[in-house]
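ok trying again, last paste got cut off:
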Amino acid sequence: MTPDRLADLVGDLLSILRTGLHDVTWSRYRAVEEVISDLEHLRERIDEGDPPARRELKLLCAPTGVIDEIAISSGWAETWTKLVGKYRSELR
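nice, full thing came through this time. structure:
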């Protein structure tokens, strides 16, 4: 697993979250801007080789995790499923 691939996943997520409206009701966040801020910070830490940042990202992306909940409630579950498939080995 390389930090670059996880950073790529974050970049893909940020692209999605920066467009359209997203429902964060079922997450720990009050606004999508908070999710974006956390992901940007995680990407920086991943780029620096920070192992705890990798674990945090994996938790956010876990089934029924924050990103999963946002994707489902915001109508991009199919897109999310494809991303999970693309980055499956990095998320293990």
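cool. The mean pLDDT is 93. The helical segments are 3-17, 32-47, 51-61, 66-74, 77-86.
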